[in-house]
Design brief:
single chain, about 450 residues, alpha/beta, 5-stranded antiparallel β-sheet
Length: about 450
Amino acid sequence: MAMSQGANLVEKAMGHGDNATTEQNMTNPARDREKYGDPNETMKALAWMGKNDCQVVETPKPKIIEDRDVILKVTGSTICGSDLHLYHGAVVELQKGDILGHEFCGRVDSMGPGVKGLKEGQRVVASFQIACGDCMYCKKKLSSQCERTNSNTIENIMYGGRTAGMFGYSHFTGGFAGGQAEYVRVPYGDVNLLKLPDDVPDEKGLYLSDVLATSWNCVVDTGVKEGDVVAIWGAGPIGEMCAEMSFTNGASRVIMIDGGSGSWRLDFCKEKMPKIETVNYTELPRGTSVTSKLKEMEHGGPDVALECVAGEYAKGWAHYFEMMLGAETDTSEIVNEMITSVKNYGRCGITGVYVGFTNHFNIGSLMERGIRLIGNGQAPVHLYWEQLLQMIREGKTDPAKMLTHRVKMEEMDVVYQKYNARADHMQKVFVQTRFSDPPSEGSPKLTTYKS
């Protein structure tokens, strides 16, 4: 928390870059209602109020401030595992009152005069990243690396370059209000919204915003191919969809690793995909490591390892204390397990969120054994979402298989607590608003937590 607030002060002192072509630091219309908010109408939104504290607040509805803005009436959103990094205060440059949420769909409520190809009332899904459509990366559909939507200076210094702006993911990624709300402003709306056809309900189309593209990117970017044995760390929604998509790309075996309070997710994924094999690291016999178990299961180890967890979850005391003391921001434990587990010249892809620096990295094994370590990056949603939409329509992928709960926008504060605790066997949620359609056939019934 102290690091996050310190980063806000440093960023303010240094100032932003001059590359952004859309408004920055508009994480809640209430910060300047005259400039950003509707003068008459309000909405409910989920706001970060401090470490492990999110609250549903009443705040002004956003208004159009740029020619290519779309104001979206949100009909569905969700919580992503990466939202928990914000909840925990692990991502720098959060400010009290920031509206969270980077996965959402809805209907066009209004739009600026420069928007082309959309009309009011149209059903659409938003990409979690904000792209301009015209820069070097956008022309290649590498939308997550847009050069013109994030002018944050600290990110540029830390990473040697900036990512695109992202909805609801702190001022570190541009400072944009997120979609865990009843309305959201979408800059460059005709670039960052994909039309949803009538045969794809919100309970499926919503997940084109992030989880499907992120999982697909993890699998194809790490090069899963015919006959590969794939090990996946983390049996959450991303890990689950990576398992399905690894089989789609020809994997002969998929082994999922999880444990602790998330152990139930292994059984959940196994029920959905009986072909997968599982390793519960908390149940391994004394003296047996994840690496030795995987090498026992497959001669030499798997061909491919996929990291679908994140760097903030320390397993051992050394990393726990180093992170607590600020000596590192991320643990290297899972990445080291991946490196030592795969075959010589194996491939390791990192798609879980890592925000800064780590200690005790096994660079020796990486070099000596020729391991390919691949940062999958923030997934370029625009590169994949049309293909993935078609796969949904053809039944080649089914995001509904990970959906376990339907909840109310008004109860999002409680839902964050439940999701953080991995309680109620909550794998993936669909968050309804007052604008949502009735549940589609086969989707979960509404779960309520407040009387």
